[in-house]
Amino acid sequence: MSLGRAIFFDPRLSVPEGTSCASCHDARRAFAGNHGSTNGVALGSRPARFAKRSTPSVLYLRFIRKFHLHWEEDAPLVGAYAGFFWDGRVDSLVDLVKQPLLNPNEMNGGDAGRVGATIASGAYAAEFRKEFGSALEDTDANAVLEALGEAVSAYLLSPEMSPFSSRYDDYVRGKEQLTPIEARGLNLFKDPSKGACSGCHKLNDRSADPKASLFTDYEFDAVGAPRNRALPATHDPKYFDLGLCERADDDYKSKTAEFCGKFRTPSLRNVAVRPSFMHNGVFSRLRDVVAFYATRDTSPERWYKGGKFDDVPGPYQENVNVEKAPYNRRRGAAPALDDQEIDAIVAFLGTLTDAQFR
User: Which of 12, 85, 157, 280 is most buried by its number of CB atoms within 10 A?
Assistant: First the structure.
């Protein structure tokens, strides 16, 4: 685990040097972050190079399972589940580690040979050789990437990265009480006619085991987040991030229209300390996120500049969730949550912050 931690925080792996995994997965932000960017997605190792999507936290990754699709007998395809990244595109932490490391818009680490040479000259070279034998000398240069991924994976899967030390965790253990506004927020979070948040962000506050409350169902949904016009890519009006249907794995037949615009439901653990929200980083305040969900359909002009669901191409707008509360209201109707109720849910979400990130 110590080897993986050393690699995770090593700024020499990027080109130019100076950007580590921790630059975007900031330990001060519960391992989310933006590397100094203000547009909602992380800055890469080079100026004006940005990640495609906002940075998810790498805490609690040990609970994510392999991507798969749901079928029901005599019914069409009904949904997808898990996998890593917003679009579930890889199934292993080893592959997860490789992608930002080699992505030219993120760490831009070069090829396997360059990565191996950097590791070989580092302070942890001896430990790496002890753990992975001859990976640095393997004729298959990709062997070093596999070894590096395994090392970082061991760190990400360690108990340190799933602390379960939030006030909510102490609440379900019976060690702490919520304040009145937090308790009201929890009730609204669960109420299927109000926030209805727990429909996707699953919890079980009747269980004393915090592992029963991961605050996600790991499934995919299209919520119609507004277009983030601060992202350079969106300057092209033809650009759209289609999410799940951009998966490259044809074996899963996921390149189908019904998946376009859908992204994996993130866990809400430590959500209050993230610098940006939604897959495109369009929001920088947690309260705005809750207010968006509550008023997206009753006051769409509050959120959309280019027409409702302006970040989803017209042919795929029918995929956006409009059936479940709080979305099941018409324009001009009273929203499912008023301002005080929104504040209460935000207060409750603050209880999900682990102790070391408060």
Answer: 280
